[in-house]
Amino acid sequence: MKRLLIVFLSGLSFSFGQNSIEDAINQYNSNSVAYINVEMLNRELQSKENLVLLDTRSKAEFDVSHLKNAVWVGYDEFNLNTVKHLSKTSEIIVYCSIGVRSEEVGEQLQQAGFLNVKNLYGGLFKWFNKGFKVYNLSGTATKKVHPYNKFWGMFLINAEKSYH
């Protein structure tokens, strides 16, 4: 939560000095949770059945679109009770818009003893920008993505930005 507030408060200076997802990740993440890139995740999703995808964005963002079979756990709402049914050795991928909120949830999971937690590098935005599918609540592929806000939306390419 603290890091998200810093991101919001420093957004003005960030917008003048940096203009890529990579710049944002480098500025706001501490690399405390190992990354998985979108191409590797796509391969793993095709070959592994027991991969757990946790969406750490707001419910409104998740409702617009998310990765297939992802479970919404939220960021402000995140609670370790949500994942108490998972084995500590489960392969867990956390993601958000670009990877800032998910890193913090990943840290909480690691502190709780989960051994195989990875953060999706560039998050849902990089996933979508690379041409991989996202899905709405009915399970249908969609071009709509919730950009969190107009500032972060600049990192989305060819998406139908939906703020609902």
Automatic annotation (TrEMBL):
Tree of life domain:
Bacteria
Statement: the UniProt record of this protein carries the keyword Lyase? no
- InterPro entries in the cross-refs: GlpE_sulfurtransferase, Rhodanese-like_dom, Rhodanese-like_dom_sf
**Molecular function terms from GO:** transferase activity
* Keyword entries, A-Z: Transferase
Ranges where the Rhodanese domain occurs: 47-136
SMART domains listed in its UniProt record: RHOD (SM00450)
Database matches in SUPFAM superfamilies: Rhodanese/Cell cycle control phosphatase
Alphabetical list of PROSITE patterns matching this protein = RHODANESE_3
Signal peptide from the UniProt entry: none
The record's section on PANTHER family has: FAD-DEPENDENT OXIDOREDUCTASE (PTHR43031), PYRIDINE NUCLEOTIDE-DISULPHIDE OXIDOREDUCTASE (PTHR43031:SF1)
Which protein are we looking at? Rhodanese-related sulfurtransferase
Source organism per UniProt:
Psychroflexus salarius
Taxon lineage: Bacteria, Pseudomonadati, Bacteroidota, Flavobacteriia, Flavobacteriales
